[in-house]
Write a structure and sequence with these properties.
about 40% helix, 12 strands, four-stranded parallel beta sheet, Rossmann fold
Length: about 425
Amino acid sequence: MSVVVAIDEGQAIADALRREGHGVVATVRAAAPALAAAEELLGADAEAVLRAVAEADALVLEVRRDTVSTALVALCDRVGTRIVPLCDAAAEQRLAQAFGLEQSHPLAGEAWRLSDVLGAVPSRDAPDGAPSTGSRVIAVWGPAGAPGRSTVAVELAIELARGGRHVGLVDADTHAPSLALALGLADEGPGFAAACRQAELGGLDARELSRVSVALGRSGVDVLTGLNRPSRWPELSEPRVERALSICRDWADYVVVDVAASLERDEEIVSDLDGPRRNAATLAALRAADLVVAVAAADPVGIARFLRAHSELRATVGATPVVVLANRLRPGALGIDARGQVRRTLDRFGGVGDVWFVPQDPRSADAALLAARPIAEVSPKSPFTLALRRFVGEAVVGATTPATSTRRQRRTGRAATAV
């Protein structure tokens, strides 16, 4: 495990990590990585700091207002470096949470505890395509305004099922469930709510999941349909959803979860702190996910909504990788260089450096909606299908070990905005 220690007077921690068997590639002052990521002058050390951060598996960072920034978090996301925040005061812990670094650790804690945390970080030396523990749970999220979450979730599941994989498609939207209607499936069946109830009772296993799910033709996708009435949302409580998705890992090779847009926590405005929460299913699915596909509508309103909600998403998922997909790209809504405008806006205001694009394809989308089938089955050669297939191959399947995939792209000089 290669580590960069960014702590003022952090030599003692660096020596302790070396004794625990970690390779400390650099020890720098706490503010150095943030200043280097923001391209402010650091003299001759700036390039060395950036190179060390890019090559390390983890950055052990002392959290203060001058040491953590959006630019630094975005840089570490791009190069696949995990930030391990160290802080003691409550204000610093809140600052870490605001940047999506939820699991902070005491600055003066024991070295062996920090070593255990670093031991859970995937190494860059892991072979490409090395499977993670269990199957991958992929949550598809997007802000309010119908950016195309459900459509992307369906097509993502279809593409992942290629090659004989078994894929589970879960509708965990507690506000506007739609997968059953879009795919022509009966929404009166047991579905995901039944799976959650069985998980709470201890009776959920792979056989039961196969019983309550619906096969989507011969695609290899089994669908756990959502609530047939949104008023039933209390059935999808946080413990139930977490346990059900945990069992789904042993049921399918990939599990794609369609979630609602709202990330609001209402603990501060209700009196019953133990009562159900309507957004609990969304928050539980995002926390349980190994990868989050964040869908943004590629128009001025959609991008503005995405940027407003993106920081809250990062605070919710913590260190979980997030890939951004700009959906329904068309020049009419943005003018000249639509892709460039979206890319520069997300990079400037949200620190999002890597973006994939899917073009607007109303003819294929309408044909799929009319037939109540996935777009990939109705129009297998459509621009939408081909773009999403490339996205799945490079950003999802190719990111089984996210740090390794990102490092490979940087070595070969390929643009992350591949579509």
